[in-house]
Specification:
Belongs to the short-chain dehydrogenases/reductases (SDR) family. It comes from Roseicitreum antarcticum. This is NAD(P)-dependent dehydrogenase, short-chain alcohol dehydrogenase family. One of its GO terms (molecular function) is oxidoreductase activity, acting on the CH-OH group of donors, NAD or NADP as acceptor. This protein has 246 residues and is of the alpha/beta class. It has one domain: Rossmann fold (3-Layer(aba) Sandwich), CATH 3.40.50.720. Helix content is 46%, strand content 15%. The chain is built from eight helices and seven strands; from the N terminus they run E-H-E-H-E-H-E-H-E-H-E-H-H-H-E. The chain has a seven-stranded parallel β-sheet, sandwiched between helices. The longest helix is centred in the middle third of the chain and has 29 residues. It is globular. The structure holds nicotinamide-adenine-dinucleotide.
């Protein structure tokens, strides 16, 4: 067994599951965390080198207990991929405080709580954090007040982590995916949004889970040993166009 350990949150499906597979390929053993215990166990059963931990990243008690269990079962942490997230598209006037808080709890507080829980172990192993934000955190739109704001905060949190943890040899980077046909995206992307993305993205298509996962895997690897505090868009060129988010 390799002795490199990664934690991936939101690992039961989508980008988190693809990332788990790529990190296994790269020699990591992976702690898969997800709030959806049923899907998590079903996916983990088919993979060797993983352990499954049902966890709600927005709940401080759940995060503390889960990270203690991972430490007891697997030892240290070399990489933390903060990928768990939810989408909620709506303009300011329609986003009541309950919706706003729900998005912040998972997308922002979850990244903070998991990073804080992992920090001593990451310092001990000169580990790496990769946070998953979104192009919605780089560009404002008429539809994404909560989601976009949560992702912009994750981008800034990444810079804080890079600056604060650099002296311990811990790297922190952020990946901003463009659209990928996951359950999260397809719940909020209307046909109009899909068509607009196809037109606006220079590569004229959605990305795949694996295309995002490969960027995450690179940032987790020693090949990125001098890369920290960076915000990397994996978006088919969308961020370069100056076109507004559909
Ligand atoms: P997905 O819905 O396929 O996967 C998200 C996973 O996170 C699910 O397994 C879900 O159960 C889990 N999760 C949700 N809330 C959780 C919680 N509180 N605690 C633990 N796990 C929780 O979605 P995805 O598209 O693979 O999203 C992964 C990340 O990529 C998210 O942070 C998302 O915002 C980001 N992202 C996705 C896209 C896209 O187009 N799919 C674009 C930009 C950014």
């Amino acid at each position: 067994m390799a002795d490199k350990i990664a934690i991936v949150t939101g690992a039961a499906r989508g980008i988190g599951l693809a990332t788990t597979r790529l990190l296994l390929r790269d020699g990591f053993r992976v702690a898969m965390l997800d709030i959806d215990a049923e899907e998590l166990h079903a996916r983990a059963e088919g993979l060797s080198g993983v352990r499954a931990y049902p966890c709600d990243v927005s709940d401080p008690g759940s995060v503390t207990a889960t990270f203690a269990a991972v430490a007891a079962d697997m030892g240290g942490i070399d990489a933390l991929v903060n990928n768990a997230g939810i989408a909620d598209f709506g303009p300011i006037e329609e986003t009541d405080f309950t919706r706003w808080r729900r998005v912040m709890d998972t997308n922002l507080d979850g990244v903070f709580l998991c990073s804080q829980a992992a920090t001593p172990a990451l310092i001990a192993r000169r580990g790496v954090i990769v946070n998953i934000a979104s192009i919605s955190g780089l560009r404002a739109s008429t539809l994404r007040v909560a989601y976009g704001t949560s992702k912009a905060a994750v981008i800034h949190l990444t810079k804080q982590q890079a600056v604060e943890l650099g002296e311990y040899g811990v790297r922190a980077n952020c990946v901003c995916p463009g659209p990928v046909r996951t359950k999260l995206a397809m719940a909020v992307h209307s046909q109009e949004i899909i068509d607009a993305y196809h037109d606006a993205i220079p590569l004229n298509r959605y990305g795949s889970e694996e295309e995002i996962g490969e960027v995450i895997a690179f940032l987790c690897s020693a090949r990125a040993s001098y890369v920290t505090g960076q915000i990397v868009a994996s978006d088919g060129g969308f961020e370069s166009t100056g076109v507004g988010l559909p």
